[in-house]
Amino acid sequence: MKVIVVGTGYVGLVTGACLAEVGTNVVCVDVNEAKIKDLQNGILPIYEPGLEEVVHRNFQNGRLSFSTDLASVIPGAELAFIAVGTPPGEDGSADLKYVLQVAKEIGASMTNYLVVVTKSTVPVGTAVKVNRAIKQALQERDQLLDYDVASNPEFLKEGAAVADFMKPDRIVVGVNTEKAQQVLENLYHPFVLNGRPIVFMDIASAEMTKYAANAMLATKISFMNDIANLCELTGADVNKVRKGIGSDPRIGDRFIYPGIGYGGSCFPKDVKALVRTGKEYGHAMRILESVEAVNEDQKKVMFNKIDRHFESDLQGKTFAIWGLSFKPNTDDMREAPSIVLIEALLNAGAKVRVFDPVAMHEAKKELGERVTWGTDLYDAANGADGIVLVTEWNEFRLPDWNRIKDSVKAAVVFDGRNIYDDVTLQKKGFIYYGIGLAR
Ligand code: UGA
Questions:
Q1: How far is the CA of 300 from the centre of ligand 1 (A)?
Q2: Ligand 1 within 6 A of 264 CB?
Q3: pTM of the prediction?
Q4: Contact call for residues 249 and 159 (beta carbons, < 8 A)
Q5: Is 266 a catalytic residue?
Q6: Alpha carbon separation from 183 to 13, 114, 177, 199 (Å, rounded)
Q7: Structural domain boundaries of the chain?
Q8: Which of 103, 154, 201, 304 is deepest in the core (most CB within 10 A)?
Q9: If one looks up domain 211-297 in CATH, what number appears?
Q10: pLDDT tens digits for 35-83?
Q11: ipTM of this complex > 0.90?
């Protein structure tokens, strides 16, 4: 089976590489020539554990190739995935111009029956627009070729993308013909041998499933952040509350970790887009409006704690920031809460020393020379008045606190992810602040 994947971002590249890994012939297409040239030379545009090996292996065995020329690779393909970006427009709605441009190009170059699948996160109704764009392009060529559109949202998590794709919890596919269903069933057969389901449904429901899943997860996080803040005020400890509620399988123990707000390229964008879709249909998504508002406030929680501790006198103080990416195991800085915190510290006249195991290169694009770039966590902490744990990378979990104590100016730790034990740190002579803990 020959498959085309258009867009070599997180979703497209992982999809292409993992499909090739199980034996499918895949051509990944992108308009960015430099990116395609790099991929042909084995250089990946993103850091994602395990991805480089899968890309290299399948590029070498010839099942995975890269091209900038969509029109020349479409003929002969059975399936084309659209996995290009859907950046948020000014009003929060997903901008479909790239998706529809690709649909048009596919319609202009296809030569045989093709299933065109949207994999980008796209609002309900997009498949209809994709269909229209293809049909129009075919009409312009006076061609009456048979094709189907389908929706196959992706649920992979950055940092675990390859593992998530290879062993999915479920695969959701929206189709409106038997023929398209058969093609997708064949494609995904190797991924559901573990008994996990392919859930077939109509296209609108598949499109909505993606948003509903992300919105539910974002809701869990904002809910816990709200509870955490109330815990602080009432003398309760959110770590205990989390364990207390998480053991109820109806609630579950995952995605209920309070922190400094969710970030990344998905939750913030998708929550806004669903609120926007609600507005379009005259339905206020009141829960999601609050989820977003709570998240915006949560990004400021750590700064407020720091400001209170130093009695609003941050001028000339130095802070170490451990972790910059929006979560561990990725270099993705999109909507990273670290940036909000660092900007607030710099605005208050503080100096900032940062360290991240992988994301410093990405973060430099935003922060430039306004912060000092540490060589490791100890270097970042050197001479600091406070250490702020922002991203819970494994290598931050067990630092040598005695060594740190000797090199800091003041032994204060602000733990944005509750990964340290307050009692242990206090015994070692540190003042400790977490999220949602009784003081
Ligand atoms: C998210 C979803 O988890 C994926 O299923 C989905 O496919 C993806 O969006 C997407 O739409 O493409 P991702 O953004 O990679 O994946 O990252 P998550 O692991 O979900 O984390 C998102 C944010 O929530 C991070 O900032 C993380 O620190 C935060 N988070 C997560 C918490 O604050 N608490 C938690 O308990 C869990």
A1: 19
A2: yes
A3: 0.93
A4: no
A5: yes
A6: 21, 9, 10, 14
A7: 2-200, 211-297, 299-433
A8: 103
A9: 1.10.1040.10
A10: 999 999 999 999 999 999 999 999 999 999 999 999 999 999 999 999 9
A11: yes
